Amino acid sequence: MAQAGIHGLVGVALRKVAPMREWLVFGPVLGNLFPDADNLAVAAATVLKLPTEGLHRTITHSIFTTLLILGIFYLVGKLTKKSRWITFGIGFSAGILLHILLDLIIWFDGVAILWPLPVWVDFWTGVSPAVWFEKLLLPAEFLFFALFFWSLARLQVKTVSEPVIFLRYWILLQIGLFITFTFLVYRMGPVFMTIYGLLYLLSLGLAWGITIRMRDVLDVQTRPAKPVEPIFFSP
Protein backbone atom coordinates (compact mmCIF):
# COMPACT_ATOMS: atom_id res chain seq x y z
CA MET A 1 0.00 0.00 0.00
CA ALA A 2 1.07 3.53 -0.62
CA GLN A 3 0.64 5.98 2.26
CA ALA A 4 -3.07 6.34 3.04
CA GLY A 5 -2.73 10.12 3.07
CA ILE A 6 -1.48 10.02 -0.53
CA HIS A 7 -4.61 8.15 -1.53
CA GLY A 8 -6.73 10.77 0.22
CA LEU A 9 -4.89 13.57 -1.56
CA VAL A 10 -5.55 11.92 -4.93
CA GLY A 11 -9.26 11.79 -4.11
CA VAL A 12 -9.33 15.48 -3.18
CA ALA A 13 -7.45 16.38 -6.37
CA LEU A 14 -10.24 14.77 -8.44
CA ARG A 15 -12.55 17.64 -7.44
CA LYS A 16 -10.97 19.72 -10.19
CA VAL A 17 -12.04 17.34 -12.96
CA ALA A 18 -15.12 15.56 -11.58
CA PRO A 19 -18.51 16.28 -13.21
CA MET A 20 -21.09 18.18 -11.16
CA ARG A 21 -23.01 15.36 -9.50
CA GLU A 22 -24.09 15.10 -5.86
CA TRP A 23 -21.66 12.90 -3.85
CA LEU A 24 -19.54 12.18 -6.94
CA VAL A 25 -16.65 14.10 -5.39
CA PHE A 26 -17.14 12.75 -1.87
CA GLY A 27 -17.18 9.16 -3.19
CA PRO A 28 -13.65 9.01 -4.67
CA VAL A 29 -12.06 10.51 -1.55
CA LEU A 30 -13.61 7.87 0.71
CA GLY A 31 -13.07 5.17 -1.91
CA ASN A 32 -9.37 5.98 -2.10
CA LEU A 33 -9.10 5.47 1.66
CA PHE A 34 -11.30 2.36 1.89
CA PRO A 35 -8.95 -0.44 0.71
CA ASP A 36 -6.54 0.14 3.59
CA ALA A 37 -9.31 -1.07 5.89
CA ASP A 38 -7.71 -4.49 5.49
CA ASN A 39 -5.09 -3.32 7.99
CA LEU A 40 -7.76 -3.76 10.66
CA ALA A 41 -7.96 -7.45 9.80
CA VAL A 42 -4.17 -7.73 9.88
CA ALA A 43 -4.06 -6.04 13.30
CA ALA A 44 -6.79 -8.30 14.71
CA ALA A 45 -5.05 -11.42 13.42
CA THR A 46 -1.75 -10.25 14.89
CA VAL A 47 -3.27 -9.65 18.32
CA LEU A 48 -4.98 -13.07 18.23
CA LYS A 49 -1.75 -14.68 16.99
CA LEU A 50 -3.45 -15.92 13.84
CA PRO A 51 -1.94 -16.09 10.33
CA THR A 52 -2.01 -12.75 8.50
CA GLU A 53 -1.20 -14.12 5.07
CA GLY A 54 -3.83 -13.24 2.49
CA LEU A 55 -5.39 -10.43 4.53
CA HIS A 56 -3.53 -7.45 3.06
CA ARG A 57 -3.91 -6.17 -0.52
CA THR A 58 -6.40 -8.91 -1.36
CA ILE A 59 -10.15 -8.61 -0.64
CA THR A 60 -10.35 -4.82 -0.46
CA HIS A 61 -7.96 -4.43 -3.42
CA SER A 62 -9.87 -6.66 -5.82
CA ILE A 63 -11.64 -5.56 -9.00
CA PHE A 64 -14.36 -8.11 -8.23
CA THR A 65 -14.94 -6.54 -4.81
CA THR A 66 -15.11 -3.14 -6.48
CA LEU A 67 -17.79 -4.37 -8.90
CA LEU A 68 -19.75 -5.88 -6.01
CA ILE A 69 -19.67 -2.58 -4.11
CA LEU A 70 -20.77 -0.72 -7.24
CA GLY A 71 -23.71 -3.13 -7.62
CA ILE A 72 -24.72 -2.73 -3.97
CA PHE A 73 -24.87 1.06 -4.16
CA TYR A 74 -26.76 0.81 -7.47
CA LEU A 75 -29.42 -1.34 -5.77
CA VAL A 76 -29.55 1.00 -2.76
CA GLY A 77 -30.10 3.93 -5.11
CA LYS A 78 -32.88 2.15 -6.96
CA LEU A 79 -34.61 0.92 -3.80
CA THR A 80 -34.45 4.30 -2.06
CA LYS A 81 -35.07 6.21 -5.31
CA LYS A 82 -32.18 8.49 -4.43
CA SER A 83 -29.77 8.84 -7.31
CA ARG A 84 -27.02 10.20 -5.08
CA TRP A 85 -26.35 6.66 -3.80
CA ILE A 86 -25.72 5.48 -7.35
CA THR A 87 -23.50 8.48 -7.96
CA PHE A 88 -21.66 7.83 -4.70
CA GLY A 89 -21.17 4.18 -5.68
CA ILE A 90 -19.63 5.22 -8.99
CA GLY A 91 -17.27 7.65 -7.28
CA PHE A 92 -16.46 5.24 -4.43
CA SER A 93 -15.65 2.45 -6.88
CA ALA A 94 -13.53 4.79 -8.99
CA GLY A 95 -11.64 5.73 -5.83
CA ILE A 96 -10.91 2.06 -5.05
CA LEU A 97 -9.59 1.50 -8.58
CA LEU A 98 -7.33 4.55 -8.26
CA HIS A 99 -6.08 3.22 -4.93
CA ILE A 100 -5.21 -0.12 -6.55
CA LEU A 101 -3.42 1.59 -9.44
CA LEU A 102 -1.43 3.82 -7.10
CA ASP A 103 -0.40 0.83 -4.97
CA LEU A 104 0.88 -0.91 -8.08
CA ILE A 105 2.86 2.13 -9.21
CA ILE A 106 4.50 3.41 -6.02
CA TRP A 107 4.59 0.47 -3.63
CA PHE A 108 7.15 -2.34 -3.60
CA ASP A 109 4.84 -5.32 -3.43
CA GLY A 110 2.09 -7.07 -5.34
CA VAL A 111 -1.69 -6.64 -5.31
CA ALA A 112 -4.26 -9.43 -5.70
CA ILE A 113 -6.38 -7.42 -8.14
CA LEU A 114 -8.47 -10.46 -9.12
CA TRP A 115 -9.05 -11.90 -5.65
CA PRO A 116 -10.33 -14.59 -4.90
CA LEU A 117 -8.35 -15.80 -7.92
CA PRO A 118 -4.68 -16.31 -6.98
CA VAL A 119 -3.47 -13.62 -9.37
CA TRP A 120 -0.93 -11.14 -8.03
CA VAL A 121 0.32 -8.18 -10.05
CA ASP A 122 3.66 -6.68 -9.04
CA PHE A 123 5.32 -3.92 -11.07
CA TRP A 124 8.37 -4.04 -8.78
CA THR A 125 9.34 -7.70 -8.98
CA GLY A 126 13.00 -8.09 -8.06
CA VAL A 127 13.29 -4.56 -6.67
CA SER A 128 14.14 -4.20 -2.99
CA PRO A 129 14.32 -0.70 -1.45
CA ALA A 130 17.11 0.16 0.97
CA VAL A 131 16.37 -0.81 4.57
CA TRP A 132 16.61 2.79 5.81
CA PHE A 133 14.13 3.92 3.14
CA GLU A 134 11.73 1.07 3.90
CA LYS A 135 11.74 2.07 7.56
CA LEU A 136 11.23 5.74 6.74
CA LEU A 137 8.05 4.87 4.82
CA LEU A 138 6.40 3.90 8.11
CA PRO A 139 6.46 7.30 9.88
CA ALA A 140 5.85 8.95 6.49
CA GLU A 141 2.27 7.72 6.87
CA PHE A 142 1.70 10.42 9.49
CA LEU A 143 3.26 13.10 7.28
CA PHE A 144 0.85 12.32 4.47
CA PHE A 145 -2.09 12.18 6.86
CA ALA A 146 -1.10 15.73 7.87
CA LEU A 147 -1.00 16.80 4.22
CA PHE A 148 -4.41 15.21 3.61
CA PHE A 149 -5.94 17.05 6.56
CA TRP A 150 -4.28 20.26 5.35
CA SER A 151 -5.92 19.84 1.93
CA LEU A 152 -9.30 19.49 3.64
CA ALA A 153 -8.59 22.55 5.76
CA ARG A 154 -7.94 24.58 2.60
CA LEU A 155 -11.33 23.53 1.26
CA GLN A 156 -12.95 24.63 4.51
CA VAL A 157 -11.42 28.06 4.24
CA LYS A 158 -12.83 28.41 0.73
CA THR A 159 -16.34 27.16 1.48
CA VAL A 160 -17.14 28.17 5.07
CA SER A 161 -17.55 31.80 6.12
CA GLU A 162 -15.63 31.26 9.37
CA PRO A 163 -12.78 28.72 9.12
CA VAL A 164 -13.13 25.83 11.54
CA ILE A 165 -9.98 25.55 13.61
CA PHE A 166 -10.23 21.89 14.69
CA LEU A 167 -8.25 20.57 11.69
CA ARG A 168 -5.20 22.52 12.80
CA TYR A 169 -4.99 20.31 15.88
CA TRP A 170 -5.08 17.09 13.87
CA ILE A 171 -2.51 18.42 11.39
CA LEU A 172 -0.13 19.34 14.21
CA LEU A 173 -0.72 15.98 15.89
CA GLN A 174 0.18 14.09 12.71
CA ILE A 175 3.30 16.19 12.18
CA GLY A 176 4.31 15.49 15.77
CA LEU A 177 3.82 11.74 15.25
CA PHE A 178 5.85 11.89 12.05
CA ILE A 179 8.79 13.58 13.79
CA THR A 180 8.59 11.30 16.83
CA PHE A 181 8.40 8.04 14.92
CA THR A 182 11.03 9.08 12.38
CA PHE A 183 13.37 9.16 15.36
CA LEU A 184 12.02 5.99 16.99
CA VAL A 185 11.82 3.79 13.89
CA TYR A 186 15.60 3.44 13.81
CA ARG A 187 15.94 2.78 17.54
CA MET A 188 13.03 0.58 18.63
CA GLY A 189 12.41 -3.13 18.28
CA PRO A 190 9.07 -5.00 18.03
CA VAL A 191 7.49 -2.64 20.56
CA PHE A 192 7.68 0.09 17.95
CA MET A 193 5.41 -1.76 15.56
CA THR A 194 2.74 -2.27 18.22
CA ILE A 195 2.63 1.41 19.19
CA TYR A 196 2.99 2.55 15.61
CA GLY A 197 0.26 0.20 14.36
CA LEU A 198 -2.23 1.41 16.96
CA LEU A 199 -1.61 5.08 16.16
CA TYR A 200 -1.73 4.39 12.43
CA LEU A 201 -5.15 2.70 12.72
CA LEU A 202 -6.44 5.57 14.86
CA SER A 203 -5.20 8.08 12.26
CA LEU A 204 -6.81 6.09 9.45
CA GLY A 205 -10.11 5.99 11.32
CA LEU A 206 -9.80 9.73 11.90
CA ALA A 207 -9.30 10.27 8.16
CA TRP A 208 -12.45 8.27 7.38
CA GLY A 209 -14.49 10.10 10.02
CA ILE A 210 -13.40 13.57 8.94
CA THR A 211 -13.99 12.74 5.26
CA ILE A 212 -17.54 11.58 5.97
CA ARG A 213 -18.27 14.57 8.18
CA MET A 214 -16.95 16.97 5.53
CA ARG A 215 -18.92 15.49 2.62
CA ASP A 216 -20.78 18.78 2.12
CA VAL A 217 -17.49 20.66 1.82
CA LEU A 218 -16.18 18.14 -0.70
CA ASP A 219 -19.51 18.35 -2.52
CA VAL A 220 -19.45 22.15 -2.82
CA GLN A 221 -19.48 21.92 -6.63
CA THR A 222 -23.07 20.70 -6.60
CA ARG A 223 -24.75 22.83 -3.93
CA PRO A 224 -24.16 25.87 -1.71
CA ALA A 225 -21.87 25.20 1.20
CA LYS A 226 -23.53 24.55 4.55
CA PRO A 227 -22.09 25.56 7.91
CA VAL A 228 -19.77 22.80 9.07
CA GLU A 229 -19.85 21.91 12.73
CA PRO A 230 -16.51 21.27 14.46
CA ILE A 231 -15.52 17.61 14.38
CA PHE A 232 -14.71 15.76 17.62
CA PHE A 233 -13.88 18.91 19.55
CA SER A 234 -13.57 22.65 19.08
CA PRO A 235 -11.51 25.32 20.80
What is the total number of structural domains?
A: 1
**Strand percentage:** under 5%
Structural class: mainly alpha
> Element order, helices and strands?
HHHHHHHHH
Calculate Rg over CA atoms.
18 Å
Distance between the termini: 35 Å
Number of strands: 0
Q: What level of helicity do the residues show?
A: 55-70%
Oligomeric description of these chains: single chain
Q: Number of helical runs?
A: 9
Overall 3D form: globular
The major sheet is characterized as: none
Taking pLDDT < 50 over at least 5 consecutive residues as the criterion, the unreliable ranges are 222-235
Average pLDDT for all residues: 84
Topology:
Blueprint: H1 4-13, H2 26-33, H3 38-47, H4 63-80, H5 83-106, H6 131-159, H7 166-184, H8 190-213, H9 215-218
Helix pairs in contact: 1-2, 1-6, 2-5, 2-8, 4-5, 6-7, 6-8
Quick overview:
With 235 residues, the chain is mostly helical.
Describe this entry's structure for a reader.
- This protein has 235 residues and is mostly helical.
- The chain has one domain.
- It has nine helices and no strands.
- Helix 1 (4-13) runs antiparallel to helix 2, helix 4 (63-80) packs antiparallel against helix 5 (83-106) and helix 6 (131-159) runs antiparallel to helix 7.
- The two termini are 35 Å apart.
- The relative contact order is 0.16.
- Residues 222-235 have low confidence and may be disordered.
